[in-house]
């Protein structure tokens, strides 16, 4: 196959959701459809249990498993699907945000009982920043959920995206029987089977068919009314609007019962984007460009303390990656080649000789990579779009073993390079602040510092509301701001200046007092907030 055919064959996406909405269950059903696993249950262990905030052995064990399952490749109807896993725990949301930079589209899972939840809104904000096409799956229709029409309204209101239902639930809760496919105008009534793909499908080609009344009783009349209303209210799905991230097709179903999933997967195969061009500091690099390029969006530490190597996850963006060929590490200006690059097929890792745009490969790293690094075939451009977001919790690092200061410094620096948390350093003196989106990371850092670096520290909570990167063309105002606020201005990992605002009020007053300074809540300034 030539490069264009390889690109056409691939779809790279992530499933995202508020914890517990059913992401893991849906992932599993996709793998079943793709033939990558035979029975459900295989992916489940990848989840860090929500209650186990202090059970580090569990975390460590699961981190090990998640290397293999971080990317799940499988074939479905002649397409090569790369499903990138995102952590279920909300404290690892930053990891999810970064993973979203490496996909071409997402499937957003909503729990029909709970509707749009906080984490869902945040994830959608990230998708909107880069106009990522979104398909919505409304899950758990076997439970007494909200009315489907009000769920659609809530999606539009809270997520700021237009929606178009593609399937419709037949009954809800105890009376849920399956879904009507608004696109093909047919009904598939599935037999519920939680562990396998049921072959037992009753198909009805026409909604008016009286067979429907026999099968679903009273629900048939309600379905016909709903469908009439939908056809009257919602426009046909415009593929272009979907690809621009302006409209989201919506599917209803029940992941655990295998209802409504195949409809979604089949349409996903048809409309989800193939690997797209990506922005760099010299413009868009198209996947069809002959020369290889890619970027690192995730780094995973080796769990074995005797082997300090790590795995860098690289998304191939253009050309062909080849094993043992020298490529150019742009930030370091260094030639590197990889003897053991791996791909990830569902449950196991395997050595690969080549990879194409849309693929994610694992590169063994002895400390050359930072998140956001670009690899090329000699070019000197850098991929954009792997921003840091403002953390929500800030703490100062307090060294509790002065004899191990060096180890602590190295540990903190390496762990933050891996993206476990963000590091902010005072411009004068030695103060270091760690910023995260959840408390769990502080425990993870402490544990890993002790076990991997033999260093120990405690954390002193800081009352900061947000980290703001700032820019201004008014040099005088900028200099005055930096001088007067020096106690609150720190450096991030790339030596950018960051203002730590104590409260929302302080931030507002500062914005009023310094009208020529722009404050940004992500490190990527073009995405103004
Ligand atoms: P997550 O990855 O988004 O966090 O969610 P996950 O798939 O783990 O699902 C969360 C819970 O919701 C699980 O129950 C799962 O079985 C259940 N679930 C998923 N899809 C459906 C559905 O369509 N209907 C219903 N009623 N439940 C669903 P759990 O009790 O946490 O785990 P388990 O003991 O069932 O494995």
Structural description of this entry:
This protein is α+β, with helices and mostly antiparallel strands. It has 3 domains: 3-271, P-loop containing nucleotide triphosphate hydrolases (Rossmann fold); 279-376, P-loop containing nucleotide triphosphate hydrolases (Rossmann fold); 393-527, Alpha-Beta Plaits. Helices cover 28% and strands 29% of the residues. It has an 8-stranded antiparallel sheet with strand order 27-24-26-25-29-30-28-31. A 7-stranded mixed sheet has the order 2-3-1-4-5-11-6, with helices on both faces. The longest helix is centred in the middle third of the chain and has 15 residues, at 219-233. Residues 45-57 have low confidence and may be disordered. The chain binds guanosine-5',3'-tetraphosphate. The site of guanosine-5',3'-tetraphosphate has 17 residues, from helix 2.
Distinct small molecules: guanosine-5',3'-tetraphosphate
- Say what the CATH topology of the largest domain is: Rossmann fold
State the distance separating the first and last CA atoms.
43 Å
**How are the strands ordered across the major sheet?**
27-24-26-25-29-30-28-31
Strand and helix layout:
Blueprint: H1 3-8, E1 10-17, H2 23-33, H3 56-69, E2 71-76, E3 79-84, H4 93-100, E4 105-111, H5 118-129, E5 134-139, H6 148-159, E6 162-165, E7 167-170, E8 178-181, E9 186-190, E10 201-204, H7 210-216, H8 219-233, H9 239-243, E11 247-252, H10 261-271, E12 278-280, E13 283-285, E14 293-301, E15 310-318, E16 321-322, E17 327-329, E18 334-336, E19 342-345, E20 348-351, E21 354-355, E22 360-365, E23 374-376, E24 393-399, H11 405-417, E25 422-426, E26 432-436, H12 440-453, E27 457-462, E28 466-472, H13 475-484, E29 489-491, E30 497-501, H14 504-513, E31 517-520
Parallel strand pairs: 1-3, 1-4, 4-5, 5-11, 6-11
Antiparallel strand pairs: 2-3, 7-8, 8-9, 9-10, 12-13, 14-15, 14-23, 15-22, 16-21, 17-18, 17-23, 19-20, 24-26, 24-27, 25-26, 25-29, 28-30, 28-31, 29-30
Helix pairs in contact: 4-5, 11-12
The chain binds guanosine-5',3'-tetraphosphate.
């Amino acid at each position: 196959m030539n490069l264009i055919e390889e690109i056409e064959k691939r779809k790279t996406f992530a499933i995202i959701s508020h914890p517990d909405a059913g992401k893991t269950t849906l992932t599993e059903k996709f793998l079943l459809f793709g033939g990558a696993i035979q029975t459900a249950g295989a992916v489940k262990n990848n989840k860090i249990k929500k209650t186990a905030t202090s059970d580090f052995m569990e975390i460590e064990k699961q981190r090990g498993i998640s290397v293999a399952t971080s990317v799940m490749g499988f074939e479905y109807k002649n397409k090569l699907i790369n499903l990138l896993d995102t952590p279920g725990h909300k404290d690892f949301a930053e990891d999810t945000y970064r993973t979203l930079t490496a996909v071409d589209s997402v499937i957003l899972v909503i729990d029909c009982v709970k509707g749009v939840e906080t984490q869902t809104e945040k994830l959608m904000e990230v998708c909107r920043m880069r106009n990522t096409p979104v398909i919505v799956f409304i899950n758990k229709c076997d439970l007494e959920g909200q009315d489907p029409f009000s769920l659609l309204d809530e999606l539009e209101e809270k997520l700021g995206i237009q929606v178009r239902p593609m399937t419709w639930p037949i009954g809800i809760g105890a009376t849920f029987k399956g879904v009507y496919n608004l696109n093909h105008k047919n009904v598939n009534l599935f037999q519920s089977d939680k562990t396998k793909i049921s072959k037992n499908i009753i198909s009805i080609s026409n909604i008016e068919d009286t067979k429907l009344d026999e099968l679903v009783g009273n629900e048939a009349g309600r379905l016909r009314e709903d469908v009439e209303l939908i056809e009257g209210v919602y426009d046909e799905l415009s593929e272009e609007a979907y690809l621009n991230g302006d409209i989201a097709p919506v599917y209803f179903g029940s992941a655990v019962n295998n209802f409504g999933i195949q409809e979604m997967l089949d349409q996903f195969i048809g409309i989800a984007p193939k690997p797209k061009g990506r922005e760099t500091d010299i413009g868009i690099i198209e996947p069809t460009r002959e020369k290889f390029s890619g970027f690192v969006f995730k780094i995973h530490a080796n769990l074995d303390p005797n082997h300090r190597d790590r795995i860098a996850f690289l998304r191939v963006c253009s050309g062909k990656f080849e094993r043992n060929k020298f490529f150019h590490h742009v930030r370091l200006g260094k030639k590197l080649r990889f003897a053991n690059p791996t791909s990830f097929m569902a449950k196991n890792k395997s050595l690969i000789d080549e990879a194409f745009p849309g693929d994610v490969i694992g590169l063994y790293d002895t400390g050359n990579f930072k998140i956001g690094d670009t690899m090329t075939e000699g070019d000197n451009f850098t991929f954009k779009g792997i921003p840091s977001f403002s953390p929500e919790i800030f703490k100062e690092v307090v060294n509790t073993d002065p004899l191990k200061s060096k180890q602590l410094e190295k540990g903190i620096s390496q762990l933050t390079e891996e993206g476990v948390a963000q590091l902010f350093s005072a411009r004068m003196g030695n103060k270091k602040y760690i910023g995260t989106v959840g408390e769990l990371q502080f425990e993870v850092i402490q544990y890993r510092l002790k076990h991997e670096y033999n260093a120990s520290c405690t954390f002193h909570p800081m009352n900061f509301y947000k980290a703001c990167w700032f820019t201004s063309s008014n040099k005088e105002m900028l200099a005055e701001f930096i001088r007067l606020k020096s106690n609150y201005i720190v450096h991030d990992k790339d030596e950018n200046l960051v203002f730590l605002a104590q409260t929302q009020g302080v931030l507002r007053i500062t914005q009023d007092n310094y009208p020529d300074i722009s404050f940004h809540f992500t490190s990527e300034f073009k995405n103004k907030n």
